[in-house]
Amino acid sequence: MTKTLYLPAPAKLNRLLHITRRREDGYHELQTLFQLVDISDTIGLTPRDDHRIVLNEGIDDVAHEHNLVVRAARLLQNTHLLHNAMETPRGVTLSIEKRLPMGGGLGGGSSNAATVLLGLNHLWQLNLSVDRLAALGLQLGADVPVFVKGHSAWAEGVGEKLTSVTLDTPWFVILHPGVSVSTAAVFQDPELTRNTPPITMARALQGGAPTWRNDCEAVVKKRYPPIAAALDWLNCFAPSQLTGTGACVFAAFETQEAAKQIARNASQHWPTWVAKGLNRSPLHDALGG
Ligand SMILES: C[C@](O)(CO)[C@H](O)COP(=O)(O)OP(=O)(O)OC[C@H]1O[C@@H](n2ccc(N)nc2=O)[C@H](O)[C@@H]1O
Ligand SMILES: Nc1ncnc2c1ncn2[C@@H]1O[C@H](COP(=O)(O)OP(=O)(O)OP(=O)(O)O)[C@@H](O)[C@H]1O
To answer: Is CB count within 10 Å lower at the N or C end of the chain?
Structure first.
């Protein structure tokens, strides 16, 4: 019987997010500190004898063809075909066990895609380098490369120019304020701070957590009062921030016990997670890379 490989797709937090410039193409250049955390979706990959890419358990509301796991598998299959025209590309049956909220700023979809790229590179024995896979991943989304590289990182560009960093690893309380944020609308908002002067990585790291902030926060709070309310609530216990363009907000605690205590109260109002900060991705641990 063909065995299924189950691999984690961890979440990320943006512990600092500066927007430094709007580009000609409308996209924005960022400086961000990505930290991986230990809450994950699980992706199942079962190799097939034919060339089909099948998604068994998907996600309601996302058509299979649009699902980032299917798009990642197709991208890899097409890349392989292009360079190995004589070889029949292999297929895979995929499944997703979703725990990360969608569109929450935790990068779940991007992480799912990265797990498929690395998992299939392993199963199909393609031997593509991590750098090559990260470049392919960028075609699927700006947050895919950091998950492919598998380490907390300082990022520039739209998030693809990565330098691995080692961050502190506190326990985080993460809340989902229950609204869905349009990333495009936040980036188009005339009031968005989009001219923060670039800083060096060394300076960002030297300043540490008390100096880290997210340039999207003011606009997001104004547009989405439930996010402002969640930030105000969490700020009563520890300095709190938005991840990405939201909707999730988070705060760091020194111990698991302290985080759990706040999470117990928070969970009366919002979906809540306690997550440990990581530097290395559990996906890379699982693949032994
Ligand atoms: C802000 C972050 O969460 C930081 O981790 C991510 O860069 C967002 O990445 P994402 O959710 O994959 O966003 P995308 O789906 O690529 O972008 C949605 C829309 O937001 C705007 N956008 C996004 C990223 C970026 N660096 N500049 C932008 O202006 C663009 O209008 C884009 O059409
Ligand atoms: N496998 C997938 N998992 C989650 N979302 C997916 C997936 N495939 C496609 N999508 C689509 O991608 C959108 C963004 O998902 P994702 O969970 O990555 O957002 P996010 O956490 O806000 O990420 P980011 O921090 O990169 O903005 C979803 O709203 C959904 O429509």
So the answer is: N
Residues contributing to the annotated binding site for ATP: 101-111
Ligand 1 pocket test, pick from 158, 183, 194, 243 with the greatest ligand atom count within 8 Å of Cβ, gives 183
Residue of 196, 201, 205 lying closest to 167 (CA atoms): 205
Ordered domains of the chain (ranges, CATH): 5-165 (3.30.230.10), 171-278 (3.30.70.890)
Q: Is the CB of 36 under 6 A from ligand 2?
A: no
DSSP designation for 281: -
- Beta strand pairing call for 161-164 and 153-156: antiparallel
Catalytic residue among 25, 49, 60, 143: 143
111 C-alpha to center of ligand 2: Å?
9
DSSP reduced 3-state for 128 = coil
The average confidence (pLDDT) of the chain is: 95
Question: Which residues, listed in sequence order, are joined to residue 40 by a DSSP beta bridge?
Answer: 10
Tell which wins on pLDDT, 85 or 28: 28
Query: pTM for the whole thing?
Result: 0.96
Look up 143 and say whether it is catalytic: yes
ipTM for this prediction: 0.94
Active site residue 189: no
